[in-house]
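Recall the central idea of this unit: under ordinary conditions, the amino acid sequence of a chain determines the structure it adopts. In this exercise we apply that idea directly, starting from the sequence alone.
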Amino acid sequence: MNLLAFDTSTDAMSIAVQRGQDGSSQVWHHSGPGGAQTSAHLIPAIQDLMHQAGLTFAQLDAIAFGCGPGSFTGLRTACSVAQGLAFGAKVPVLPIDTLLCVAEEARFQHATDLENSAVLALLDARMDELYASHYEFNSGQWRQIGGYSLIRPEDLACEPNSTLAGNVFAAYGERLPAALTQRVDALPSAAALLRLAPALLAAGAAVPADQALPIYIRDKVAKTTAERAAEKAAL
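Accordingly, the structure predicted from this sequence is:
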């Protein structure tokens, strides 16, 4: 398959292009800072990788992007770029759950340890909260257990033998339940998107460009002045 994949749901930007040829594939990667820099650097970086791969956008089988949960601005940027490129090239879009990408990246890093196991994927949602979702990996397939949560670190709960995976441990590690000791640092990466894409495409998860949407778990993206003042007064 020829695939373009990118994720800008966190403070990191991750892009990859896969070119399939003669029964094998080659992958080109780019990573860099995300956040406020994403809108300026995402499209030029994509164009550069596509040039390195010798592909035009019309030759792609799909454009995959991390659709959330994650940074409000990052998700909007990724979705709009995926839609725009897909419209122009007349190729489908594959929105992929960013927390699933976290679980897949953790599995890839620790394949032996996480085969046939449960992973609680976590991303820093800022404002003293986490995005969370449970996944199980069995017989080479991921399955989401339940839905998504927006939760404070102290309120996190899962089976004691579950592995925590994500980017929350530096900021919230001491506030997570002490019993949950299996922890893996992981981010949603374009490489994880590429690994997940074939099964999702086979399952019919690709959509026309105009139907590709981000997953927003939180509508409120900033605290009011009064809320910030109340928090400061409580310290």
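Strands lie at 3-7, 12-21, 24-33, 62-68, 93-97, 117-126, 129-138, 141-151, 163-166, 183-185.
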